[in-house]
Amino acid sequence: MNPSIRSSLAAALIHPYDYLQCDCAEKREESISGFPDESVAFLRYLQAGKMLNVYDWFESFAMGLEGEPRPNTNRTVTPNVTPQKRKGKGKDSNADASKDEDDDERWKSEIQARFLRCFHELDMLGFLKQTGRKPEHAIRTVFEIID
């Protein structure tokens, strides 16, 4: 038994595969994108200074998830047809562009929701302290992590 809860939580967030008891723990990935969301957010948390700008932290979190595969979309695949045979060729390119933009917007919304969940979970665990002076900032409560 480790009576130090904070250090146990920090160790589990830094090395999540040492604590997970599932098939995913067998595939220890080296990239940060394979880690659980809370671990990605916590690792980015450790790289920041005393005060965290929440927007910068979110951007860093989103960059940590870039290697993650995006969810599949239900697109119809058009057969290889020459442009002369395709009817309304301008409409297809515009429709594809709007679908790509919709997919990007959905992906950004999903990343925002995942970050907010991580932010609130780290706040509930006591790793963050809200500041009244700067509403877009949070104060770190953990500074020295011995690996």
Structure description:
Helix content is 46%, strand content 7%. By secondary structure, the protein is mainly alpha-helical. The chain has one domain. Strand 2 and strand 3 form a beta hairpin. Helix 1 crosses helix 2, helix 2 packs across helix 3 and helix 2 crosses helix 4. It starts with a helix and ends in a 7-residue tail after the last strand. About 7% of the residues have low confidence.
Task: Note the topology.
Blueprint: H1 5-14, H2 37-46, E1 51-53, H3 54-64, H4 89-124, E2 128-130, E3 137-140
Helix pairs in contact: 1-2, 2-3, 2-4
Task: Tally the beta strands.
Answer: 3
* Estimated structural class: mainly alpha
Task: Indicate the low-confidence ranges by residue numbers.
Answer: 73-83
Distance between the termini: 18 Å
Rg, rounded, reads 21 Å
Count of discrete domains? 1
Shape: globular
State which percent range the strand residues make up.
Answer: 5-15%
Strand line-up in the sheet with most strands: 1-3-2
Oligomer: single chain
- Portion of residues in helices? 40-55%
Biggest sheet details: 3 strands, antiparallel
Can you give the mean pLDDT? 76
Number of helices: 4
Order of helices and strands: HHEHHEE
